[in-house]
Automatic annotation (TrEMBL):
GO molecular function: monooxygenase activity
FAD-binding domain mapped to chain residues: 5-338
Name under which the protein is recorded: FAD-dependent monooxygenase
Superkingdom of the organism of origin: Bacteria
Pfam families per the UniProt record, alphabetical: FAD_binding_3
Record's keyword annotation contains Membrane: yes
Keywords for this protein: Membrane, Monooxygenase, Oxidoreductase, Transmembrane, Transmembrane helix
Organism this protein belongs to: Actinomadura napierensis
Length: 397
């Protein structure tokens, strides 16, 4: 019979919801605390790849996930005048192979929430943790206090659980020297399930539309040597506008829409590196433990696989948290390391440092788009992503 069945999961993102799903499946009693007042809707598009497809299939949700695909049909790179430099199909542009599924983050949140039986504490978060011999005494921001057998921090890159249990964020978060911003914009380009990318020196802009959405999403990815991230939306909007000042193509018009966007997001492109993911009865999952950065394209897959493995090891160890946490790290660390390497490598391709680099990249894309055998060339680009996404054999717990 399982011990330590009463588990608090901090964060109702993909990692936290997937963990709650598997914990309940294995006979545990999960409670999920989430700072937001409800499950987050909308969001940008994410990929479910490789081993994560296996995890989703074992959840019985793979068909539904594939049914939610964004339907993006093509990807195009344009120059400052809006002229097409190169085009390819949407899956090739996004590095997807072998049935990988691109979905909206909010749709995946909703699906996991609808299929998960857990106690939810919305509009609250962990304020204090105190470990005892028999559990973890948790004080919430609301002032309520409860004791749990185990606590899982699945609360993202800026994990409050990690800070409480392991120490300050700057000990573990590595800034990759870039910033990212994403928000919804009117589809003034008339995109129909299309993705368009414009590359300038040190800064890249991407706009896409997905099936069933009349608007579009704009993403801005740029180099930054500034320490830290501006606090507050107004300061972040000013930083984004300054970074793209004087940029061509449709960038000024896209930036005009950020003030009205209800879903404005701005953060550093960073990774989390830790020597250990657990301390006593507290363990970390997903971005809180091993964020690979948005540039890796693997955050969602790492979350789904990590949740499957952590819950499975807890079940296999019959709730012996020390044995389970050690086995979880043994299983996941090689997979995490392989996927984290994708982040810096992809950034070099996504953001060109100089105007000369942009010209060379545009020329190469233009030539490649006209060459026979371009599919084989793109396959070589996609191969490292697929290899990383499948670099773990999931146990059957």
């Amino acid at each position: 019979m399982n011990e330590n069945t009463n588990v608090l999961v901090s964060g109702a993102g993909i990692a936290g919801l997937a963990l709650a799903f598997w914990l309940r499946r294995h006979g545990f009693a999960p409670t999920v605390v989430e700072r937001a007042p409800a499950i987050r809707a909308g969001g940008y598009k994410v990929d479910v790849r490789g081993a994560a497809l296996t995890a989703a299939e074992r959840m019985g949700l793979l068909d539904e996930i594939r049914g939610m695909r964004t339907g993006v049909r093509s990807g195009t790179v344009v120059d400052a005048a809006g002229r097409r430099v190169a085009s390819m199909d949407g899956d090739t542009f996004g590095g997807r192979v072998h049935g990988d599924a691109e979905v909206l983050r909010g749709d995946l949140h909703r699906l996991l929430f609808e299929h998960t039986d857990a106690e939810y504490l919305f509009g609250d978060s962990i304020a204090e943790l105190k470990q005892t011999a028999g559990g973890v005494e948790v004080t919430f921001e609301s002032g309520a206090s409860r004791t749990f057998d185990l606590v899982v921090g699945a609360d993202g890159l800026h994990s409050a659980t990690r800070s409480l249990a392991f120490g300050p964020e700057d000990r573990f978060v590595r800034d990759l020297g870039h910033r990212i911003s994403i928000f919804g914009v009117p589809d003034h380009l008339g995109l129909d399930r299309e993705e368009v990318t414009y590359i300038g020196p040190g800064r890249t802009t991407l706009v896409y539309s997905v099936a069933g959405d009349a608007d579009a999403k704009a993403m801005f990815l740029f180099r930054s040597d500034d320490p830290g991230v501006p606090r507050g939306r107004a300061a972040q909007e000013r930083a984004l506008a300054a970074a793209y000042a004087g940029e061509g193509w449709e960038v000024p018009r896209l930036l005009d829409g950020m003030g009205a966007a209800p879903d404005f997001y701005f953060d550093s492109v960073a990774q989390v590196h830790m020597d250990r993911w657990s301390d006593g009865r507290v363990v970390l999952l997903g971005d809180a433990a091993y964020c690979a950065s948005p540039a890796s394209g693997q955050g969602t897959s790492l979350a789904l696989v990590g949740a499957y493995v952590l819950a499975g090891e807890l079940a296999a160890a019959q709730g012996d948290h020390e044995a389970a946490f050690a086995a979880y790290e043994r299983e996941m660390r090689p997979f995490v390391a392989r996927n984290q390497k994708l982040g810096p490598a992809n950034l070099k391709r996504m953001v060109m440092r100089t105007a000369r680099g942009v010209r060379i990249s545009m020329a190469m894309l233009g030539v490649m788009g006209r060459m026979p055998g371009r599919e084989r060339m793109m396959a070589k680009v996609i191969a490292p992503i697929h290899a990383a996404a499948t670099a773990i054999a999931l146990k059957d717990y």
